[in-house]
Fold each of these.
Amino acid sequence: MTGALAPTLKLRRGARIPLLGLGTWPLDDAQTAAAVITAVDAGYRLFDTAENYRNERGVGEGIRRSGIERGEVFLTTKFNKEWHSRDGAKRAFEKSARRLGVDYIDLLLLHWPNPEQDRYVDAVAGLADLFADGRLRAIGTSNFKAHHLQRLIDAGLVPDLNQIQLDPRHARSEVRAVHRQHGIVTESWSPLGQGSGLLESGPIAGLAAKYGRAPAQIVLRWHVQQGLVAIPKSATPERIHQNISIFDFELDDDDMAQLRGLDAGEDGVADSDRFGH
């Protein structure tokens, strides 16, 4: 039985993206396909993958085996720096679409800006060409800082969405302010602070007890209650179902304020001026 669907947000170019989806790194193809099938049944309609994850085929296989219609799901993937040119973005699309087994992709993103190459503006121009041709429904960036985005904005290439590392300890206020100013949706990768101990921390445990929820549900509710798109990864059926079961309660203002107080700034955030692939 299919679970309740997540609410959606309208992107600047018109597509609608669910507020919660399934992340797939670092699952292999077989694990990914199984997770996608479970997630479709649980009500997920947003699926996130990447060239670098090496599991795009698994996402496509899971979608096909689930029996859901292509038009009912929102597929997101990302490409690496070797494709950072106007024509390269188009070749990256073709390769990802072939691996996914689809003829269009809902949202294609540059995985990292790789500013040392200084080619990301041209690559986003290639995404805009693909959107104009109807092969994309939206264009995006991943791990872009405010100054990276400003170059795109100055070139008239405002993305629909920027996917960034974001959790209550890394609330990313500077880049989110740019997002709000220009109508860019924020998508959170590693929304549960994987490996950081966030879910075991006192504040999260206290709120989980107060609301009678799992710690992960508290953190995911914090994301979606602010209009952030969250893409938690799980291969465990119980957790896949649990993670999307967050739309029947709200955190109160005091608790949202408490979670805002956990923000430790940029410490621990991957530096996209120095790292990328």
Amino acid sequence: MFGLGMAEILVICAIGLLLFGNKLPSLARSLGKSLVEFRKEFKGIEEDVRGSVR
């Protein structure tokens, strides 16, 4: 995953836990919702482009 080993991933997770603490689950949830919205919008734009090409 991005050229990172298991030790590096654990260090990043530990730093994230120290920085965000209890806010980490809500931060991950909002990031997930944003990603879903982005995919929906991208899919809509892609369908519009395909419809105009035909």
Amino acid sequence: MSGNPTLVASGLRFPEGPIAIPDGSIILVEIERATLTRVLPNSNTEVIAEIGGGPNGAAMGPGGYCYICNNGGFNWVERNGRIFPGEQAENYQGGSIERVNLETGEVETLYTHAGDVPLCGPNDLIFDQSGGFWFTDHGKNRARDQDRTGVFYAHADGESIEEVIFPLESPNGIGLSPDEDELYVAETPTGRLWAFPLTEPGVLKRERADRPDGGRLLQGRSGYFLFDSLAVDADGGVCVATLIDGGVTTLSPQNKAPSFVPMPDPLTTNICFGGKGLQTAFITLSSIGQLVSMTWDTPGLPLNFLNT
């Protein structure tokens, strides 16, 4: 990587879900503030929409709408100028998938359940070429228990949703290979990244029961860390925001040795690519409320409904 991170914006309230817009702005969520926010090229910010709950992941989808994974909210802890998410919010009413009109700020709830399965803490999402999207449900933690959750596939019109993978250990980041023939899912507490072969949009190549360990495990790093959200680069490398030691871990679907780029926040939560040739990585440093950027050795993979 080239140089140290450059500060793009500060004073954000636990930023996550960055989207690099071709006009040079960055759209992201502020989970603690419960907003969808735009960071302008001059580093000023403006609120696009008051979301409520806990907007966590964001992605551009069909029709120019921004789709939101809403985890339902956390109780928050502030220590030494940093903010940290805690247990399930006292006013928690469930998780949801929402759609935001970027022109008007109107927020529409698309899903709160998949059949009889409630959405507990939707976390991150990725659109495929067909216009459907995969998303993780991270679940919620309470004083003496936590949810068991999985991965879902849904249509952008709000008419169809299915739980496809269950259970996983607090699934978080999610992405697709360049050919969209594999789905990548990061588990937070285990620090593992799984690859699930696909036959078509929304369909696993094999039943989960065939591999109770969860699919194909990508070679990881040693040590203690947690995985958060992710982005895929143009070579198919999976760049996973990494908690505890704070940085971005890049894992190879071909099981080449992983690499790690440190960041100045133990709660490094997400990465996206933008700028000329998608050569710039934008990274959220959530506990210190910053969005930073740096030149990345490998450009990002263009996203459907955005970098086309």
Amino acid sequence: MTPDYLKNRTKQFGLAIIRMVESLPKSVTAGVIGKQVLRSATSVGANYRAVCSARSKADFVAKLGIVEEEIDESGYWLELLIEANIIKQALVTRLLAEVNELTAIVVASRKTASSSKTR
């Protein structure tokens, strides 16, 4: 998996979240949670770009940690939207799957980078 592939994948995740947020009902709760998931999900791609320009191995690992936190937070907000009956789970199943896949990729990358001697 190349950095460009993950840059694109994280951007597509952000775009999918943008589309989902735009489709939420117009209520106070949906608006607040929508802003939260929008912020965290779009931050995933922005922070992954920062990973790609890390200045050291330690910086690389630390920035991957931020990406992991933002992905996890995005998953939390999606779950909250479902559990608050604001959106049907079937409408975000693909997004939740992407949260899980991106999390697995980032965690594996961080572990590999933490244990490797180069970078």
